[in-house]
Amino acid sequence: MTNEYEMADNQRSKLIFDKEQLLAPLQQGMLRPPHPMVPGADDQSYYRGEVERATPEQQAWVEERAGAGEAGESQEATGPQTDGEVVGQAAR
To answer: Is residue 55 part of a domain?
Structure first.
């Protein structure tokens, strides 16, 4: 199987997908992004299934930001994440 494929339909509107339609739902134990990565993990660790659930530090990080007025709102990505730090975030 290759990474190349074609999609066809008689209406273009049927081939336009929203972000929510393309992303898998969060499973139990997962946190809504953005959040820092698990210490010692890299991007590939997540894809290999080595990270099974959120750490207490990640949960505290997300809850801290949710309590700052983002609760109930859709959390938007603030920039690339590296080694547990979010970079490129605008000062508030």
So the answer is: yes
Residue-wise pLDDT for 57-68, tens only, equals: 999 998 898 877
Would you mind telling me the total number of residues written for the chain in this entry?
92
Domains identified in the chain, total number: 1
Please give the structure tokens belonging to residue 15.
């081939």
Residue with tokens 């139990």: 28
CA distance 4 to 25: 25
Structural domain for 42, as ranges: 32-65
**75 in Cβ contact with 86 (< 8 Å):** no
pLDDT in tens, 8-20: 899 999 899 998 8
What is the rounded CA–CA span in Å between residue 62 and residue 92? 16
Question: How far is the C-alpha of 32 from the C-alpha of 34, rounded, in Å?
Answer: 6
Whole-model pTM? 0.47
